[in-house]
Amino acid sequence: MEISISTGSGFWNPIVWLIALLIALLITYAIRSLGRKDYKRGKEQIKPFLSGNAEEDVEKLHTKGDNLYWGFRQSLAGYYKLMQKIHSGDLRDYVVWFVVILVILSFVVFGVM
Questions:
Q1: pTM above 0.90, yes or no
Q2: Closest Cα partner for 45 from 33, 58, 36, 34?
Q3: From first to last of its 113 residues, what are the pLDDT tens digits of the chain?
């Protein structure tokens, strides 16, 4: 009994796909088994190499969002102030705005009936 699903662009046989997946997993396992045997988790070898320098505190390495978007916030400060006045933080207000804009767009797209 052959299980095939005929589509407009060929057929799909689940048995063939399962065999292909099994072969791909076997190839992946074979490549992984060729890896280094002396690797140990949790030791010094998992730390990043920083040209001999000691690793700094993780908090110091992160770029803060305030620093990253400083130029955008400065150039669009007037827009952000206006948006902060408009937005109340209440989810129901946002849902009302979404419904109103959806109705307006549906009138524009489908026309007034």
A1: no
A2: 36
A3: 566 666 665 677 788 889 999 999 999 999 999 988 887 777 777 777 777 777 777 777 777 777 778 888 899 999 989 988 888 888 998 899 999 999 999 998 888 65
Closest listed residue to residue 47, CA positions, set 56, 35, 38, 36: 56
Contacts of 48 (CB under 8 A, 6+ apart): 55
Number of residues that make up the chain:
113
DSSP string of the chain, one letter each residue: ----EEETTEEE-HHHHHHHHHHHHHHHHHHHHTS-SS--TTSGGGSPP-TTPPPPPHHHHSPPHHHHTHHHHHHTHHHHHHHHHH--S-HHHHHHHHHHHHHHHHHHHH---
Closest to 13 in 3D by CA, of 23, 24, 3, 27: 3
